[in-house]
Amino acid sequence: MPGNKKNVKKILEGLQKAYPAVKTQLEHNSPFQLLIATMLSAQCTDKQVNSVTPALFARASTPEEIMEVPLKELEELIHATGFFHTKAKRVKECAAALMEKHGGVVPRDMESLLALPGVGRKTANVVLNAAFEIPGIVVDTHVQRISQRLGFTKFKDPVKIEFDLMKLLPKESWIDFSLHLIYHGRAVCTARKPKCGECTLAEWCKGAGK
Q1: CA-to-CA distance for 13 and 204, rounded, in angstroms?
Q2: Is residue 95 domain-resident?
Q3: What NCBIfam families does the database record attribute to this sequence (predicted)?
Q4: Which pLDDT tens digit goes with each residue over 57-99?
Q5: Is the pTM of this model over 0.85?
Q6: Of 105, 132, 159, which one is at a domain's C-terminal end?
Q7: How large is the greatest C-alpha to C-alpha distance in the chain, in angstroms?
């Protein structure tokens, strides 16, 4: 059966061979910048976020500085990421909460991150993984799609998928696994026309060739 524990090791090895060096594609110079970039990436590509954040972080790169930027100006700075009204409001609320509860420092635990306005499990895991090297599984559209195709989960809810994968995969693989599937989803296992003939995971994939 695709996705059973017997094949996990082979799948992980195949991904590591195909993508030996992986990292988040969101450009950042601090945990706070990564947090904000990840919040902006909701329903937006990393490439688009990266086109916006240089000007944003040149204007304001700390929670205190973000709080001082007028809402209208912040909306203009992040306009190209979409849903800019909501995102600007959440970014300012998040910055205020960081200042009030954490002295402007991004916390290193899931519970504290989830208590910040606009931060869900996906965003929290990105920050924990990339900023602090704390294991967690990021479930974006690529991870969701490929995990389902591999038979690793039957769920569509990202949180349920995350917990299925946490039970299935060794903890030391969690960070790279998410990144591997994101890379693989962009390059090979695309949503509409997956390149099954080029896929290193095809022999274990229940969706291969369909």
Answers
A1: 13
A2: yes
A3: nth
A4: 999 999 999 999 999 999 999 999 999 999 999 999 999 999 9
A5: yes
A6: 132
A7: 55
